[in-house]
Write a structure and sequence with these properties.
- By secondary structure, the protein is an all-alpha fold.
- Among the domains are: 51 residues, no CATH class; 50 residues.
- The protein is 51% helix and 0% strand.
- Helix 3 packs antiparallel against helix 4.
């Protein structure tokens, strides 16, 4: 590409392009943005550098889509573990807590989850209701949480 063609492509004069090549002039931010757009299809790393000199990124120049924010839900089609494997994680947690056999814990978890669904509870509601509370007052360890006096 000639200096004249480059100048036309970035909205400059060929004299300014020539002076900038010799280090005697600086291209404007808009001209650098246009230059980044020109080189992006062939040299992404160079386009990043040129955009940075213009105070931009490839995203702010509209050359690339912005990255999703941290903690954003996975994109459609993103890989996810199989439901059966995720349920095995729950069963394993029960085995670790109880010391019971895998088959027994699997049967218990299934019965509990089925009953929760039958009565219209969500997993979040069950987790919140079963979340460990502060230690019960002395002498009341065997009472259900709802029957225990509040701890002050």
């Amino acid at each position: 590409m000639s200096q004249a063609e480059l100048a036309q492509a970035i909205g400059s004069s060929h004299r300014t392009v020539g002076r900038s090549e010799r280090g005697q002039a600086m291209l404007s931010a808009a001209q650098l943005g246009a230059l980044a757009s020109l080189v992006h299809p062939r040299a992404r790393d160079l386009a990043i550098e040129v955009a940075a000199h213009a105070g931009h990124t490839l995203e702010t120049l509209g050359l690339e889509a912005p990255a999703p924010p941290p903690g954003a839900p996975p994109a459609a089609g993103a890989l996810r573990a199989r439901t059966e494997d995720l349920c095995d994680v729950l069963v394993l947690a029960g085995v670790i807590e109880s010391g019971a056999a895998v088959a027994d814990v699997r049967r218990w978890v299934h019965a509990v989850m089925k009953r929760a669904c039958d009565v219209g509870l969500t997993v979040e509601e069950v987790e919140k209701a079963l979340r460990p509370a502060a230690a019960p007052p002395a002498g009341h360890e065997d009472l259900p949480r709802t029957a225990q006096a509040p701890v002050s």
